[in-house]
Amino acid sequence: MANKPKRPGKGVYGAPKLPVATSYVMPRRPLALLGLGLAVGAVFLAYSMVDHYSGGVFLSGGPLSSGHAMLERDCAACHGGFEAPTNEACSTCHEKFGDPLGTYSFDAHYLYRSNDFQQVVASEHEMTCAQCHTEHQGRTATLTAIVDARCLTCHQNGSFVDGHPEFAFAEVPDGDDDALKFGHGFHVNELMKDRGLADVEQACLVCHEPEPDGRRFGKIDFDLHCESCHLTAGTATPRLAVADGEDPATGGLGVRTLAEIRVEVGPGVDWAFYTDPTEFREAGRSVAKTTIYHEDPWILHNLRRLRGLLYEDAGLADLLVTSPDVAAGDQRLLYEEAISTLEEQIRGLRGTPSSDLQDQLRDLEGLLFRARQALADPFAPLDETELLLALSQPKDLPEEVLSEAELLIGDLTEPCTGCHWIEDATVVRVNGDQRTLHKAEFDHAAHVIQRRCLDCHQQIPILEVVSGAESDPAADHAGIHNLPTIAQCQECHRPRQVVSSCVTCHLFHPDAERRASFLRYVKPEDFERLSTLRGNVDRGQAGEPVESMSLPGIGEDAESTDLTQEPAEADLGEE
């Protein structure tokens, strides 16, 4: 008889050594179930984390936000199949069809308040819309409340209180932007005396007028803020020599009288026919203007003429009222100003009885209109070959001629130099826009409740000047921005006090004011596409490409255009 296999012993349990099987004490099956449960839980946890950081690809964690509530039962509108929402799915509703550069695209983010198209370079690290704007967080969820971790994926600046760079304007040395002769202390004192003000900050708000929403301040305007005190009835130019000819070495250095300007043939002299001749006092071959206006057309006309005698052709810069000195991101403003001046000159030539000239004027006016439309788009590339804004180069003239010209320019602009600097026979441009933060948002209305103006704007010693205390005159001039540093902001914006996340001050997408165009939504053909093409949309095929625009006489063909010639001989180029 075969031996039976020996059964494992039961063993003993406890002090009495009760016989019991070992498996009774440590059962094998529950341990396996426990291990399996832990493994499944770990997988589910990892699955949920991946789903969360991928924008909710796999799981729906709750209702959609209020703005997307109408898509609650149409998962395919965003997900297609079982995929994460694509940028194309978002652009179906949020972008204008055929827009070559979407407002909500990464390209637009790179251009946000920079106008630097060299930054538009695709990167493999770019995140999708859904990775930042996490859905399924409920009806009241705010999709724009982006956590800092999303921003720090690309911007390695650290938090606001640790690692954030200093404001750009705080790093500019004082005086680098000193385009105006202006002292705050003197003007505050005068305003307080003139208006009987007891509070210094009330005097500040006379010129720094907040916009209706209180977020920012409007531009400084001479007519509103300066004219009542400056250019009074006694302001006049000295006696100026009248020019004889056009050669600066043989009598050409001088000014043109009003009568001589009226008989000149060319654009941009319409103002001469509306100017009162009694505003001038002539004696022999000299003249003085006894009534001066801001941007006085007679002074600017003669200054432009002298600039043409002393400097080479400056291209479109000759159409500017002041110098072409602006930041790289603001050059678009110069082109708009030059084109506006050119259109005004074209309108002035409309009455010239020359059919050939009128045909050319119509063609050029149509092209300039298209140019203005293109420039109105803040994200359209600026073709510098077609819109050439050259800088003047001095001509080779004798030293004595240059010295004489400098004295004449000083006398001609004497009413202006109380406030303005004159360089290269040009008035240095003054920026009246008081906005300084170009890559961040700041709401004055939200801060003035907590702080007064001078609590933050402390760089200029206004209180010392007003009180008569001794202060350094060099500490109060137009080149000083008088804006707070980042350390002053960090006094309140710090952990467990005032929120200091990235989106508190920064926006990813361009300024909402520029995309508030309802025409994007009411065009029938666009609405039809919106209704039928809710899936992926190829924006490159959805609309017609933007046609390139060529302006004759601007850029490479500049030599063929001369609007200062007589109308019968003017060659305005061909379309």
Task: Explain what the structure shows.
By secondary structure, this protein is mainly alpha-helical. Among the domains are: 66-167 and 510-542, no CATH class; 168-220 and 432-505, no CATH class. The chain contains 23 helices and 7 strands. Strands 3-5-4 form a 3-stranded antiparallel beta sheet. It has a two-stranded antiparallel ribbon with strand order 1-2. Helix 12 packs antiparallel against helix 15 and helix 13 runs antiparallel to helix 14. The longest helix is centred in the first third of the chain and has 26 residues, at 28-53. It is elongated, with a radius of gyration of 35 Å. The N and C termini lie far apart (117 Å). 15% of the residues are buried.
SSE topology:
Elements: E1 12-13, E2 18-19, H1 22-25, H2 28-53, H3 76-79, H4 87-94, H5 106-111, H6 129-132, H7 148-151, H8 184-195, H9 200-207, H10 222-225, E3 240-241, H11 258-262, E4 280-283, E5 286-289, H12 297-310, H13 331-348, H14 355-375, H15 399-412, E6 422-423, E7 426-427, H16 444-447, H17 453-456, H18 462-467, H19 486-490, H20 502-505, H21 519-522, H22 524-532, H23 539-542
Antiparallel strand pairs: 1-2, 3-5, 4-5, 6-7
The strands making up the biggest β-sheet line up spatially as 3-5-4
End-to-end C-alpha gap: 117 Å
Q: What value does the Rg take, in angstroms?
A: 35 Å
Elements, N to C (H/E): EEHHHHHHHHHHEHEEHHHHEEHHHHHHHH
The shape, in one word, is: elongated
Main sheet summary: 3 strands, antiparallel
Structural classification:
mainly alpha
Annotation, overall tally of beta strands: 7
What's the helix count? 23
Q: What fraction strand? A: under 5%
Helix-residue proportion: 25-40%
Q: Taking all residues together, what is the mean pLDDT? A: 76
Unreliable stretches covering 5 or more consecutive residues? 518-524, 529-575
